[in-house]
Amino acid sequence: MLDLLLGKQDGTVVAPMTLVEPTYFTEIVGRLRERGHDVRHFALLAERETVLRRLREREIVHSVRRKGVPPKRDNFAVSRLDLCLERLSGAEFGEHLRTDRLTVAQAADRIAESAGLTLEPNTDSAVRGFVRRKWTSVKHIRFG
How far is CA 28 from the centre of its chain? Predict the structure, then answer.
């Protein structure tokens, strides 16, 4: 799908995904590169405790959205955390970006700079940025 899109799209395509299996990474990213696409891969890394804190924060937002339903523990994410952090630290997973002390905007700026992209200036205040990020989290909740 990305190959088709890149063949028709004039410009940059950002495809957020988590690839931690080297075989899948080679299959997807390697094949795109073989077909002549300029693929940049950024592994966003953080200390284990930082990731656990972020998962807890996400659970709280989801609980509010579900009108007081207690947070569901994301056992799958936690159970895979150490494996993901270990694998994403490997050289084959591209450029590593430590996000422990970065805001979302700072991480985006660093990725854009490394990829040679120019972003529109971020004009959000701290409060507006916080609300926008939380609203984005809430919008992505799906009810079964």
Answer: 17
In the chain, domain spans? 13-139
The amino acid occupying position 10 is D
Segment (H or E) for 127: helix 126-139
pTM over 0.85, yes/no:
no
Pairing of strands 95-98, 42-45: parallel
Q: pLDDT, tens digit, for every residue of 70-125?
A: 555 557 888 899 999 999 999 988 899 999 999 888 999 999 999 999 998 878 88
Residue 27 three-state SS: helix
- CA 14, CA 89: separation in Å to the nearest integer? 21
Distance, CA of 108 to CA of 111 (rounded, Å): 5
Contact criterion met (CB below 8 Å) for 86 and 33: no
E strands present in the chain: 42-45, 95-98
Distance, CA of 111 to CA of 134 (rounded, Å): 22
Class of the CATH-defined domain 13-139: alpha beta
